[in-house]
Amino acid sequence: MGPDPASHLAALRAAGLYRRRRVVEQALPGARCVVGGREVLNFCSNDYLGLAQDPRVAEAMAAAARSLGAGSGASHLVTGHQRAHHALEEELAAFTGRERALLFSTGYMANLGVAAALAGRGDTVLEDRLNHASLLDAGLLCGARFSRFNHGDSDALERRLEPAGRGRKLVLTDGVFSMDGDLAPLPRYASACRRHRATLVVDDAHGLGVLGATGGGTVEHFGLGAVDVPVLVGTLGKAFGTFGAFVAGDRDLIDLLVQRARTYIYTTALPPAVAEATRAALGIVRTEPWRARRVLAHVTRFRDLARHAGLPLADSFTPIQPVLLGTPQAATAASEALLGRGFLVTAIRPPTVPEGGSRLRVTLCATHEDADVVGLVEALAEVLSEGSDPTLSPTADPPDVGEHVQGGQSGGA
Q1: d(CA 260, CA 247)
Q2: Cis peptide upstream of residue 351 (ω within 30 degrees of 0)
């Protein structure tokens, strides 16, 4: 039996790993929000394209809520599947270059549903070691033989696939890893899967809308198609600025999920107003490619300035820019010091990341200004240069970092 709750909480506090939720009192235009009664610049949101606050998206949701109501009222297979859902699924299929798409209420539910529908007893599920917690839980819970291979190591994947047996083989990976910001080597993973008759599932939550010539994500970035990545999972609460998730693939895959994905069958459908808001956001992604270009330009600017300032960056060219600090205490102290300077940046600690890998997770969005990025780097340089100052040690409970699962990464969305 594990420790009693009070002892466990005391141990978390002593280790600098205790989490608490920070209340955002108001979201404001221009990547700003109000925290503790004070306006700050938000550098930890996944709203990469700035669509969560876009008035066109908000108005689409409001108009749909006025005409269609606040909720769907039932699951998709009862009476919850409305015209707005169906239209969004068709548009997401076209956007991703797949035959069909299927809406799920969350990304977590999408990944659980896919794994349980496609694998079970006698089958094999293999996963990149740094996958998001929802992918790891999906592999663990589906009943198949489950193992992880070293991060980004296609040779290790190949070695695991060779003795996998006669059952179905499923390989699950993130497209963009949510805590490191690096990309899975999808061309090599796809080649290994083809050689061993395995199905590749890519959760591209942090790539869709941002990477690729048309926002098609990591798969488009690498020039891959539906044959290479037959199962594509995407979330709607990041670059698209709304809520929910989807799986895209061929007709047989989607039909199978409708029949067997328990997280689709036995849950209430998204509110139709959310579907209409997402349709508006998807239209903006298609017609305003400057948003993704602006985000990536901010990434280049941030990395150039940070390198010049000697900041300890990870190797990432995506909007996720980790600043590696090592200990939980250093990460939480830096986060609090930045908040005092008007910058909201989340501290990420174990078990979301490995021991010794605590960091600040900086994210860049289209709504940031060039001056915001410059100001953040200057503040980071000041805070880290003062890192040995005992006044930086947090005296109160450190800030919440969102979801965390032992051995897995989390987007904290």
Answers
A1: 14
A2: yes
Q: Which helix (H) or strand (E) holds 296?
A: helix 290-308
**C-alpha pair distances (Å), 75 with each of 252, 256, 265, 271:** 21, 17, 7, 10
Return the number of other C-beta atoms located less than 10 Å from residue 278's C-beta. 29
The pTM is what? Answer: 0.92
Show which residues are catalytic.
178, 206, 238
Q: What is the pLDDT of residues 280-308, one digit of tens each?
A: 999 999 999 999 999 999 999 999 999 99
Give me the residue label for tokens 């610049």.
Answer: 41
Report d(CA 391, CA 337) in Å as an integer: 10
Beta-bridge mates of residue 200: 171
Chain CA centroid to CA 90, Å: 23
How much is the pLDDT for 16? 87
CB 147 within 8 A of CB 126: yes
d(CA 38, CA 380): 19
pLDDT of 80-110, one tens digit each?
999 999 999 999 999 999 999 999 999 999 9
Q: Do residues 318 and 176 lie in contact, with contact meaning Cβ atoms separated by under 8 Å? A: yes
**Cα 295-298-303 angle, rounded to 5 deg:** 130
In the DSSP assignment, the letter for residue 400 is P
β-partners of residue 359 are 324, 348
The pLDDT of 141-154, averaged and rounded, is 96
What is the pLDDT, as a whole number, of residue 405?
37
Q: Contact, 212 vs 234, CB < 8 A?
A: no
